[in-house]
């Protein structure tokens, strides 16, 4: 499990506990802030100089969305962003759910297979 995945898992656990209890403790609030700061240090959150996107993960999502599939895979390889980290980024970051319909289980499986074939064989 990558650092980004561990961060997201801990955040999800805290949020679920908050939802169960109905309120957040000061400690939980501080921990979420710490985790978000750590999250923004991950590769998907690397800030980029782009007219449309703020983060590297957003640019990759845009490439997939604009039907530049292999270019997106190449960018993931270049930036050393695994499919797990990329799709974790999307799940957390895609507040408007614009990619929900596109990033199906079959699509994720194809990206994972193509990423492994292209990036892990080097």
Can I get a quick summary?
With 122 residues, the protein is mostly helical.
Strand-pairing-aware structural class: mainly alpha
Question: What is the tally of beta strands?
Answer: 0
Fraction of residues in helix: 55-70%
Mean pLDDT: 91
What is the overall shape?
Answer: elongated
Termini gap: 21 Å
Order of helices and strands: HHHHHH
* Overall number of structural domains: 2
User: Any idea what the radius of gyration is?
Assistant: 16 Å
Helical stretch tally: 6
Point out poorly predicted stretches: none
Biggest sheet, open or closed, and with what strands and sense?
A: none
Amount of beta strand? under 5%
Description:
The chain is mostly helical. It contains six helices and no strands. Helix 1 (3-21) runs antiparallel to helix 2 (26-39). The radius of gyration is 16 Å and the shape is elongated. The relative contact order is 0.13.
């Amino acid at each position: 499990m990558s650092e980004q995945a561990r961060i997201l898992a801990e955040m999800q656990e805290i949020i679920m506990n908050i939802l169960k209890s109905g309120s957040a403790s000061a400690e939980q609030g501080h921990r979420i802030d710490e985790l978000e700061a750590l999250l923004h240090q991950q590769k998907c959150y690397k800030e980029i100089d782009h007219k449309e996107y703020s983060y590297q993960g957003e640019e990759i999502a845009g490439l997939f969305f604009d039907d530049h599939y292999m270019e997106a895979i190449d960018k993931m390889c270049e930036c050393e962003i695994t499919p797990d980290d990329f799709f974790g980024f999307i799940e957390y970051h895609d507040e408007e759910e614009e990619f929900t319909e596109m990033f199906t289980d079959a699509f994720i499986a194809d990206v994972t297979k193509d990423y492994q074939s292209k990036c892990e064989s080097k």
